[in-house]
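Human:
Focus on the backbone:
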Amino acid sequence: MNLAKWVFRIAGVYGIVVMVPAYFLETTFSDSLHPEFYYGFLGVGLAFQVLFLMLASDPGRYRPLMLPSMLEKVSYGGATFWLYFVHRADSSVLLGGCVDWLFVGLFTWAYLATAHAHGAHRGLHARPA
């Protein structure tokens, strides 16, 4: 369980460090992007970083939230791979997608590793006959 805590703690801190500066770089990324999409993406992304930090506090208790966390990582990782392979993004974007795929693997591992802790937390542990 300690490793699951570290996985989500690292993911949350990493995400905040990477995303917060983007609030000051809108014109660097695109002049044609609708600002509401840009800031909306950042807001949802930062909300998930907070979710990751919550998960780090008690992975057994918040285990069901690991599933949407994996979806968040798959959605960006999948998009970056697709955009790279259709020549709409460069390798630096692909690298960000690879980091997200790494977190998908770690989140999946954490989900599987906390199955017993989640059951015990909910009072579903095995009872003697």
